[in-house]
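user: can you give me the structure for this one chain? tokens are fine.
assistant: on it. calling the predictor now.
[tool input]
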Amino acid sequence: MPKENIIVMAYDDIAYNEMNPFKGKVFNRPDPQGFGHDYYEGVNIDYKGEDVNPQNFLSILRGDKEAVKGKGNGRVLESGSEDKVFIYFADHGAVGLIAFPNDQLLYADELTEVLKTMNKEKKFNKLVFYLESCESGSMFKDVLPDNISVYATTAASPVESSFAVYCDSKIFGLIISTCLGDEYSIAWLEDSDKDNKSESLSQQFSLIEKKVRKSYPMQFGDMSFKEEPIFDYQGVQDSNNNNSTEERGYANYVYSLFDNPFENLLDMLGISREQSVNNKNISQGNGHINDSSREIELDVMKDMSRINSRDVKLHYLYQQANKAGNLGDNYELSKELNQRRLIDDIFKTLAIELKLNLLGEDNSNIQFDCLRESVKEYRSQCGNFTEYTLKYVQYLSVACKNSSVDTIKYVIQGIC
């Protein structure tokens, strides 16, 4: 895929983050033996930092150069009626919305209106949208039409969180106390790395369903073209590019990834360490592995490390406190736990005051105008949303089905 055909929005706060032990590098899969690939090197980021926001995202899709003038490098989607467009979005989310950095939110009806406009103005022939976030199914359920040539898949249903994987993995022998990827995203990215030119969108979704164990990926929109090959949308590997899984040389990296826990699990599966290596077709000259053994091992690693995406920060703080045991780490953990208790109490009170019935709620029929106003009021009175607080957007959405926005605002003001 030519780089001029790709637009990248990335907040870019990982590579040189003070908590990153490998400055200037980003990894998204375990690599204890040092054969991995730095995914930050060579990435051309078009919009970063404060320029990563809903307004710019929608302007890029609309092809509105004037709206992004002076922001990022000003690139926008310049596709036409014969073009196929692929969009991948990964961040936190909630019922009816997806989050951008700095507590900026994009609602499902706003995104859908832009997709409709793009279709009307012939900005694409067909468009594929992959969405990674909690409750991501609510971004398209009952919202995305099936007649605008848009096919979308999501990491989760409208009523559940997505999950992180490759948590507490080793990179160059060092245990990383956070998670390296998300279950849905890792599933399709690792599959696309195989560069299978005959694989269809439908086949990839079936694989995603199989690989994702803790949430229910879903598909929405126009199903008429999902038998088309994925390379029509995602491109194919450059023959001179060493990014494919066949070129990364992960030979033997299973060793010491989880140390004893993984060895014990191999024993449970009846696989010896020698067998797990001997089953690989390894070219000693370049360290290539060419069969499914590595994929099986990676799947086992994922099974051992899944964490609710809303709890990744908490998990990291626990790990740091247990690892170092200093007062600073313990304080940060205590602060996070206390903040969560406060948030829990706020929404418990709101549920009682508004007599909310959350049992069996499928997060359909979202009242977006009311939800926007209720979220705005909460932020004004109670504070910004975090990845944890976002799970309670569902309470506001349910409240909007049974109460007026003025009533909801009044209750929020009384609580905070």
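assistant: here you go. The CA atoms of residues 274 and 280 lie 10 Å apart. The longest strand covers residues 84-90.
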